[in-house]
TrEMBL record:
PANTHER family: N-ACETYLMURAMOYL-L-ALANINE AMIDASE, N-ACETYLMURAMOYL-L-ALANINE AMIDASE AMIC. This is N-acetylmuramoyl-L-alanine amidase. Coiled coil: none annotated. One of its GO terms (molecular function) is N-acetylmuramoyl-L-alanine amidase activity. Residues 359-467 form the MurNAc-LAA domain. The lineage of its organism: Bacteria, Bacillati, Bacillota, Bacilli, Bacillales. Gene3D superfamilies: 2.60.40.3500, Copper amine oxidase-like, N-terminal domain, Zn-dependent exopeptidases. It holds the Pfam family Cu_amine_oxidN1. SUPFAM superfamilies: Copper amine oxidase, domain N, Zn-dependent exopeptidases. GO terms for biological process: peptidoglycan catabolic process. It comes from Paenibacillus glacialis.
Amino acid sequence: MKKFSFLVMIIIFVMMFPGKGQAASGHSNIYLDGTELVLATNAKIETMQNNIMIPVRVVVENLGFNVAWDKNKQSVTINNDSTVIHLVVNNKSGYVNGNKVTLPIGPALKTDTVLVPIRFVSEQLGLQVNWDNASKKIYLISSDTGSGNPGTKPEPNPDPGTEPTTPGELALINSISYSENRLMIATKGSIEPKATVMSSPNRIVIDIPYAKFSETFGTSQQLDSYLQGSFHVVGYPDLYQVRYSLYNNSPSTVRIVMDLNYAKVYTIHAEGNLLVVELKTTDPSNPGTPVGGNGKKIAVIDAGHGNQDPGAIGITGKKEKAFNLAVALKVDQLLKNEPKIEGVLTRNNDTFLELKERVKIANDLNADVFISIHANSSGSSAASGTETYYNNDRSKALANVMHKYLVRATGFKDRGVRYGNFHVIRETKMAAVLLESGYLSNKQDEAGLFTESLQNRVAQGIVDGIKEYFGLE
Ligand SMILES: [Zn+2]
């Protein structure tokens, strides 16, 4: 919301001073949300002690903040809705919301113009500042959260095994390259990447929150004024393009997208400061070949529903999508220990996929089994128990095995293996089942489904069932 009003203000200012804009001598080299600022003719930007200094009128006219100047005290007060900055000319000490801060350089007075350091002021007022050293351009990105709070910091790193990120300090992305089926992202600082497989078109999306492109990134590869770029991949049949951008500003998030020619299984791991996303080699011209050519079976695990589609709502309000995802993530973890099974999730977070997208992931991968995890609901709160659905003959054997383990895991009433005309088990081309673990409309079932112990048992049961179906020990 705030971003909107902020941009409106900029537009109004531009309209209010069209003559000045046109009369501007040249490039400001300052980009706000991708658009270069047009400065009034007499608004000169200066560099002092390696700091870019802008006249306070630029802060008002171009950045849309309020400025008050007290000539007697030689003090300048800059504010937006949430932050007040109080500075004094030639003084490195200032105040932000009443808290004392130290500036890299104090405001300067030059021929009746007060100059302030753009990075400090912008960051304090909630803009993200990126400096491209190669092109000498400054990129300001406005927050879209409305908080404008520069104190927004990463959560403490929950993993004691990794180096904690200094609060407020963003990890840096130094370079992105691709060779030998490996996407290599050189980073500095602690990162917690999130990777998601998407289809239509097939792609792998890697989000790195609390990160930004390093100042030298743009020198080695393309990065435009919107802080995005891409490169084509030549000589690899699976991947044709890699795109990257500063996707979000709150928190600052770098998004890297691998545009695939086929749905692919991948692994993601760190090698020192290198984040590696490795595509498993497959032969798309030879259906039936397991992924990796190493005899691994592919199990697509589909957590039903997601995001705006909560699925069934439990009798106390619990959402089916959360149960489905929790179990799917546990299955995925367990499958990592199975040397002969490759687990692929259709979603690994609270996102929404169309049914056909779920199907496409499995069909494009030529997966061996498709397991859709759900929980049921009924108009009658008395209905309870566990059901397993199949749609065709090729899926019956899988349904029987999976149901045996599922009923054992939930301990609920056994409602049997059933035929069902559900899209995801009808349109998938491999053995496919849909598990209705229990009834969220039933008080006992709902309570049980949201316990860690039951979810762990269901996840283990799914893995045991898959192994038995594949004849693995
Ligand atoms: Zn469901």
